[in-house]
Request: fold
Amino acid sequence: MFPRSRAFCCTVAVSGLLPLAAYQNRVPAGHAGVPGETNPPCTTCHTVTLNPPGGSVQLELAQAPAYQPGRAQRVTVRILDPDAGRRYGFQLTARTSANLQAGAFTAGSATAVTQQGGFVYINQTSSAASYSFDWIPPAEAADLIRIYVAGMAARGTRDSHVYTSSVELSPAAAPSFRRVDPVVSAASFQPRIAPGSWVSLFGEHLAPPGVSRIWTAAEIVDGVLPRSLEGVSVTVNDRPAAVNFVSPQQVNVQAPDDDATGPVEVKLTTAAGSVATTVNLSTLAPGVFALPPRGYRYAAAVHPDGTLAAPAGLYDGEPPTRPAKPGDILLLFATGLGRTQPPVASGRVLLNPSPLANPTALRVRLGTGEAQVLWAGMVSAGLYQINMVVPDLPPGEHLLTVEVDSIASQPDLYLLTASQNEQRLFLPAPMAAAPRTRMLH
Ligand code: HEC
Reply:
């Protein structure tokens, strides 16, 4: 902490020159290292050694080297000096290439904003080795923007190490979709989606650079799933979709409810612009979630004990995997299977599993056989679970398809089954308890 007498240091120093109130607790403006301003920064009052060897000021911007107009980004300033006994401070500003003010700041802890003329600066209010705060770029893209910072490690005013640095940022590129199949089922990766189903959008600049995350619990308010993450939103046929995951190359959304079928517009919007394409909306678009390695070859089937039903060692033991055998109960996960009873609204948290409205329309085909379905329904927003029994099949890989009203899931999905003997290697004890039939019960 700054001793109280020092917190008012700069006020004391400038009070003769400038109105006192404007500089309470503040470093005077014009010392961030911008060409044409006081350079080296912080001189007049401090005796400055500029950029002495061994130390530095580090400038981190969450979306560097880009900015999205109007969209706040986190800035962290770190002052490094070999002398641990020093006290720190800094000043930072943002300028367009014409040297005009670029955006605004929201002060974080131990920082405050100072204005002078048309310019805005942010600086320390007490000593800290690093400072974090938000920079809000201008609402209109301003071409190149440069962030200037001067960081100080001081021993009083007579021996001050000042380090300068700057970072150039370009406006983030507008989003674009990939040419082939930009909008697909998040499970089957086929270009057909259903209302309420999980959908993946693929392209470039779909989210701010460096962003890759799913929603947080705090973003789900009163059971309503978020319709925007990190400034990314999606509409399907002009209706807002719930946004679960955003990254520059992929965005996952739950398609909104809709009675329309046929080609509809899918539009993704970021602070840097919008992009639209057309996708086929159908009442049913069955897709079975698959395991990522080997090109999503294996269905994400799960034994009732939680072990994945897949070739042994598919993930080198973590998570564990073991093949299924005839007679085993397996859980499959899918999207786009259509109506449930009671019906479930898209874009909301699902509180209770809801069975398929028409379970007889569902078929699970495995190789030459057909699996008995014990239960099928929605278990969380847009996600269906199918509890099935593995039919009698020879050991090996078998094509797996889920059909609703004869509309089939992706054509290239497999389940590996083992013989009874082989199975003993993986499962020495007989399954004791009755298997759970519903994941969420
Ligand atoms: C108008 C004069 C003036 C300018 C310009 C100025 N300072 Fe200061 N600063 C002072 C004075 C005077 C003190 C000493 C106050 C005291 O010791 O109580 C001080 C002390 C400090 C200290 C505490 C030093 C210590 O050893 O405790 C820090 C940190 C600091 N200034 C940061 C800065 C930074 C960073 C800049 C440039 C961005 C800057 N100051 C520009 C007048 C100024």
The CA atoms of residues 278 and 370 lie 35 Å apart. The longest strand covers residues 159-171. Residues 1-24, 422-441 have pLDDT under 50 and may be disordered. Helices lie at 4-7, 9-14, 293-296, 420-426.
